[in-house]
Hints:
The protein is an alpha+beta fold. The protein is 34% helix and 15% strand.
Amino acid sequence: MQRRGFIRATAAALAAPAALLNAPSAHASIAAVNAVLADAPGLDRLRAVAVWHDGREVAARGFGGFDPDRPTNIKSASKSVISALAGIAVDRGLLRGVDQPIAPLLAADLPPDPDPRLGRITLGHLLSMQAGLQRQSGPNYGRWVSSRNWVRAALAAPFEAEPGGRMLYSTASSHLVSAILAKVSGRSTLALARDWLGGIPGFAIASWDRDPQGIHLGGNQMAMSTRSLLAFGAAYAAGGAGAIPPGWITESWRSRTASFFTGEDYGYGWFLSRIAGRPVRYGWGYGGQMIYVFLPANGAPAAAVAITSNPDQPSARTGYRDELHRMAGRIVAALSGRGAVDAPRGPR
Length: 348
């Protein structure tokens, strides 16, 4: 099937006919989801929630004056988008694969006397946060984004682990992927995203910050609506939506390392976990920007849940992220007909 035809066919799958919702059981499930969302205003940081199930959006609601169509900063949830772009670049032959060394691609920005270990870092290491370079997130983030050249500063950082070793979560690693994508394509990463992911119904990036050299910040400061974030997750749930290679989805969701945040497995831009008894893959951004993709299980079809929150307050140490996990678990439980039950506390 030609690409354009495949996108049209997948768009139809993402927006299934209304008859899908005419069965009493479907109406009951949606009513149960809306009951979960009716309880959500108790989460005072919440901005919007949108839910996709069995081929279409089934619920969307805004909170505190926000709505699901209003762009918001999805923070590090954009790392999942960067991963998708890397996979498309590999599929199109712009990159050889995840084992390709990055040093030749970024040779102009290597330090004068580079550490030999820079030559061992691969594209896959950047995507799985296993580059070994000092983290440029957390306490180091402000200094890094204040530098004159973010790519050079990232490559000049000292090694704290061997390439391919333990996870060192760093937005600089995702930014290096963005720089590589711009280098090999001759286009901005935003232009690539709008082109390569533009066939996904409902997906749109409203704005995206750039570094001093004009490279879009890989893995942070990307604005899109909650519905757009849902569309991205739904594309993964639907097997790629004609935009993301299905083989890349499989590779992205294969465990590469363990998160030092939660102990959960981590792939290429996605956390791998279980919530409410369902296997789930999720992207997580500061403040509680979440895209959950629940895999089919026990006869229940795939589902996606997008949640956006105030991007200026922490979500991990406050327990807010765990509350969002529980809400997502209640939503998928409702979709499967098990009612609005609580998910297990925290990821498992």
